[in-house]
Amino acid sequence: MDGTLSIWIFTLLTIVVGIITYHRKSLDLLGSIFMIFMGIIILFKAGIPWLILILIFLILSFYASRYAKEYKQKLGIYEKKRTAKNVISNGLIAFIMAAFGGVAFSGHYIPFVGGFIGAVATATADTMASEIGVLQKPRLLTTFRIVEPGTDGAVSILGTVVGIIGAGIIGFASFILGIIPNPLLAIQITVISGTIGCFMDSVFGAVLERRGLINNEHVNLLGTLSGAIVGIILIS
Q1: Is beta strand 108-111 parallel, antiparallel or unpaired with respect to 154-155?
Q2: In contact, 67 and 127? CB cutoff 8 Å
Q3: Do the domain assignments include residue 43?
Q4: Is residue 34 part of a domain?
Q5: C-alpha triplet 59, 198, 38: angle, nearest 5°
Q6: Structural domain range at position 167
Q7: Quick count: other Cβ atoms within 10 Å of Cβ 3?
């Protein structure tokens, strides 16, 4: 298929996905618009494989958020519709990594591919850990005391395992899509960066968010930034 035609097909696909997420009330209008905008920029700046990786994250997040829906509703932690803040906090770092590609530093060029898959792996791991991990009583990361599901900064064995699996899926997809040609390296980067980023998310939640110093969007942003930094270091 002609490259230009492929680009426009995926542009249309991105718009369709944005419309579907709004129609299904997974995102509000502004959130869907931001998602379409960020997706199209990633497509034109980084290419089809990078966009597909984002779409894989969205699919995993969609199903994870609806997993055990009734149980989450009983707990009062089910979040059906997300907003532009959610899109930006989870996707901004990956967007920057894809849009700018890399940076020159001390005479060396540092590619952002590791940062991109690290950020996506962190967002995936954190979403799956928080959405599925609520099925098990978590412990607060700073004190290790048992707390209620959905508590800021809480972690569980189930959530951690599911998060690692989610990060691994992103790594395997990165290899299949040709973003990282070495399968072991791709999985290594995403599992390590995704796990560290996810735990940093919990640290920020336990230490800062619980004290009212930052909100959940800031926590997600800092978590994905942590994962991106680890990803850049691992691929360098």
Answers
A1: unpaired
A2: no
A3: no
A4: no
A5: 45
A6: 48-235
A7: 9
pLDDT at 236: 82
What is the secondary structure of 165-205 as a DSSP string?
HHHHHHHHHHHHTTSSS-HHHHHHHHHHHHHHHHHHHHHHI
Q: pLDDT of 129-146, one tens digit each? A: 999 998 899 999 889 999
pLDDT tens, 26-65?
Answer: 899 999 999 999 999 999 999 999 999 999 999 999 899 8
The Cα 135–Cα 9 span in angstroms is 39
User: In Å, how far are 20, 30, 39, 108, 116 from 26, measured between CA atoms?
Assistant: 8, 12, 16, 42, 24
Q: Which amino acid is at 63?
A: Y
Which residues have a Cβ under 8 Å from the Cβ of 96 and sit 6 or more positions away? 112
Angle, helices 113-132/48-65, rounded to nearest 10 degrees: 10
Structure tokens at 115: 């940062």
Structure tokens at 173: 């997809």
Q: What is the dihedral of CA 219, 59, 32, 149, to 10 degrees?
A: -40
Residue 183 lies in a domain: yes
Domain for residue 5, yes or no?
no
The C-alpha atoms of residue 174 and residue 49 are separated, in whole angstroms, by 8
Number of separate domains in the chain: 1
